[in-house]
Amino acid sequence: MLNKHEEEFNELIKNNHASIYRICRAYLYDITYADDLYQDILFQLWKNVQNFKGKSKVSTWVYRIAVNSAINFNRKNKNKEHITLPDIIHTPFEETLSIKIEQEQQLDKMRYCISLLEPQDRLIISLVLEDKSYKEIAEITGNNHVGVKINRIKGRLLKLMQLNTEYEF
Amino acid sequence: MNFKDLQESWQAQPVNANVDSYKLSEQKSKWQIRQRKLLRSNIILSLGCLAAVITLTWLYISHNHEFGWPFKVSIGSLNLLMFIICLISWKSYAFKKENFEVSSIHFISYHIRKLNWQRNIIMKYIWVHTVLIWLALVMYTWSSHRTTTFKFTALAIITVYIFGITGWFWIKKLRKEVSKLNDLMADLEYMKEKLLENEDVENTF
């Protein structure tokens, strides 16, 4: 029989695990490192769920922990920072990956383009992709002037996606 | 291509992460296993020391009129050393039973201090204790009414036995214990650091 702490934690994960996972995939291109970060975030949530005082929305609190953990994960694991692929392997969707369905190719291209952004921008765009409002993103990241930045990052991502599409042809 | 399409395909991506619940409880179980082992070894040590003290006391009562002051000092020192090693071992055991799931920074610091004590016992005190026991036994042997040859032979055997046993134990068991303690302490330090970093999250909200 689960205790109260485990029940609270399980409920939290059930409602938020997909978003947390997507943030990890946005922040770290390599899936094994993204999985490590995901485990790290879950551990932090498990440790802190009892300390949540309910002054904010649960999702805002969860994202805050996730963002904080991602930044610290990066700081502690500098060697896991994304390294730009050499020009010869410019995009991750070469002919050898043709077995992937179109949607997965598009996703992979997106992840790659996101990985070309600055670390802080990756976190912001992952929150935008999660449909968070500007206000929520400002609360989560602790940056009140995030509105202008969001538009710039969105523009940059779209441009990167377009450049990669042109390269494909 | 517009941002809305990107957003939709992003949110529709498959989520394949495994929640390794074993890892989450691993931190807790490593530390609890350590505490249980320490409790067991402390109880055995205490019982062993009690038996030794009773034997030494009986020896003293039976033979103190036959021997001089070195005999009395050696028996007294051995009893004192038994008492001290028991005290130090129990000092390294964490008696506080705060729930691990709601561990605060202070509780984690408390456990790091206890683990540090355990490490110091293995690295330093065990050798000091060995030397003092050896000295006490030297005095006991020298105070006996035997020939000089017998005394030196006995001293040589005692020296080889005591330092040999301690050295062997250090090589076979204690080095691994120190390594486990270092790992545990590193895990607890990491948890403490994370709690400190996340403290501002709750302060903000």
Task: Characterize this entry briefly.
Chain A is built from 7 helices and no strands. Chain A is mostly helical. Chain A has one domain.
Poorly predicted spans of chain B? 19-24
Distance between the termini of chain A: 58 Å
**N-to-C SSE string of chain A, H for helix and E for strand:** HHHHHHH
What's the helix count of chain B? 5
Shape of chain A: globular
Class inferred from helices and paired strands of chain A: mainly alpha
β-strand percent of chain A reads under 5%
Oligomer: heterodimer
Q: How far is the N terminus from the C terminus of chain B?
A: 38 Å
Rg of chain B, Å, rounded? 27 Å
Instruction: Please report which band the strand proportion of chain B falls in: under 5%, 5-15%, 15-25%, 25-35%, 35-45% or over 45%.
Output: under 5%
Question: What brief labels describe this structure?
Answer:
heterodimer; A: 169 residues; mainly alpha; 0% strand; globular; B: 205 residues
Question: Would you kindly provide a written description of the structure presented here, covering whatever features stand out?
Answer:
The complex is a heterodimer of chains A (169) and B (205). Chain A has 169 residues and is mainly alpha-helical. Chain A is globular, with a radius of gyration of 17 Å. Chains A and B meet through helix 1, helix 2, helix 3, helix 4 and helix 7 of A and helix 1, helix 2 and helix 5 of B.
What is the secondary structure topology, with strand pairs?
The complex is a heterodimer of chains A (169) and B (205).
Chain A (H helix, E strand, L loop, with lengths): L3 H24 L3 H18 L9 H19 L25 H14 L3 H11 L4 H8 L4 H23 L1
Chain B lengths: L2 H9 L9 H43 L5 H23 L13 H38 L5 H57 L1
Helix pairs in contact in B: 2-3, 3-4, 4-5
